[in-house]
Recover the amino acids of this structure.
DNA sequence: TCACTATATAATTATACATGCATATAGCTA
DNA sequence: TAGCTATATGCATGTATAATTATATAGTGA
């Protein structure tokens, strides 16, 4: 599957994607390149914070950037991120649906929480997610 | 792209995948269900640590588990993880190749580090990765 | 019941990281 | 040059998390 030497790098990429603010930035870039200020306007974060997230995305090779006069345009460098988000999104929805489906009628029979018996403690936070 | 209510959940999933040890666990499960002890043997971590990572994977819905006698078998719950790893792996390899390709003949002309001028500081850690 | 094995959890420590504020740097225009 | 805008960076702080050790829990069999 993953060459041992790649594991750390692949994990790092997942980690970079594992930040809500950075996912929102990538969404903001889905329509095309945008300046830092535009992104700051789209999201409601402060400029230094967005800049730092952009630097992290850039280092990971997920976005590219180009200066134009006084502004810097960022853009998505590898569209695979959208594919990834789509897959994870669907998978997450499946999981949430699965939790809700079984949450009602299960009891805790043995010590270890199997998938079904573990549901009840998590579903609460998932209501209305889809 | 991602519904706003989903962003946090999707990010959490990426984050769960963004840990080398957990990726290795998923790899160990690629051939089929395995007990905790078997996984501990495959990787070289200690048992409590592996158990905690397994719990995190379980909570994220990425693995399932089933007790059999005294042992607990874990298995991959959603094969999408392999697709994700494959995509990220390829993307990472592309990025690494891109870094190496341009690393040699670039100079720093302006203050902002564009993709090419930023390469030199990163390529060192990527030698021999593919 | 007791001993044994397998797994999970609690407590601790160290480290990574996101955030916010202040400030520095780069480019533009006059 | 000075003054302005846009972006990046340094620093401090709080929080999340991975790893380690010790211990608890669950299941098996005598």
């Amino acid at each position: 599957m993953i060459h041992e030497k790649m594991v750390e790098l692949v994990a790092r990429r997942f980690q970079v994607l594992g930040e809500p603010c950075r996912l929102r930035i990538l969404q903001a870039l889905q329509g095309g390149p945008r300046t830092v200020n535009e992104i700051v306007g789209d999201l409601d974060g402060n400029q230094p914070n967005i800049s730092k997230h952009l630097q992290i995305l850039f280092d990971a090779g997920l976005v590219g950037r180009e200066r134009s006069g006084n502004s810097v345009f960022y853009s998505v460098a590898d569209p695979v991120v959208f594919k990834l988000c789509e897959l994870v999104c669907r998978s997450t929805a499946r999981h949430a649906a699965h939790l809700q489906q079984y949450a009602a009628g299960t009891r805790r029979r043995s010590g270890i929480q199997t998938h079904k018996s573990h549901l009840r403690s998590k579903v609460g936070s998932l209501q209305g997610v889809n």
Remarks:
- Residues 35-37, 47-48, 51-52, 54-55, 67, 69-72, 110-112 of chain B lie near DNA strand C (CB under 10 Å from a C1').
- Strands of chain B lie at 34-35, 63-68, 71-76.
- The longest strand of chain B covers residues 63-68.
